[in-house]
Amino acid sequence: MVLLNYGFSELNLNRVEADIDPRNINSARSLERIGFTKEGHLRESCVVSGVLTDSAPYGLLQREWKAA
């Protein structure tokens, strides 16, 4: 959360993104708990250990961070 405060306050970022493996439920819950929104599901968009896997992009806007 310190990094998000720094990014939005000091760097004046408008958006922060995260991309996770959608099978990792704990990562999804953590991002959603601090205000990130799931923005999609990309099929077979990553290669992990030589295996095609999906990814789930998340985003958080400055105005959403300030409102929380």
Would you mind describing this structure in some detail?
The chain is an alpha+beta fold and 68 residues long. Helix content is 35%, strand content 38%. A hairpin with a 2-residue loop joins strand 3 (42-48) and strand 4. The longest helix is centred in the N-terminal third of the chain and has 9 residues, at 2-10. It is elongated.
Largest sheet: 4 strands, antiparallel
Q: Count all strands and give the number.
A: 4
For the residues shown, what is the average pLDDT?
Answer: 96
- What's the helix-strand series? HEHEEEH
Distance between the termini: 12 Å
Instruction: Flag low-confidence runs.
Output: none
Q: Proportion of β residues?
A: 35-45%
What is the molecular shape? elongated
Number of helices: 3
Which value, in Å, is the CA radius of gyration?
13 Å
Write a short abstract of this structure:
The protein has 68 residues and is α+β, with helices and mostly antiparallel strands. The protein is 35% helix and 38% strand. The relative contact order is 0.27.
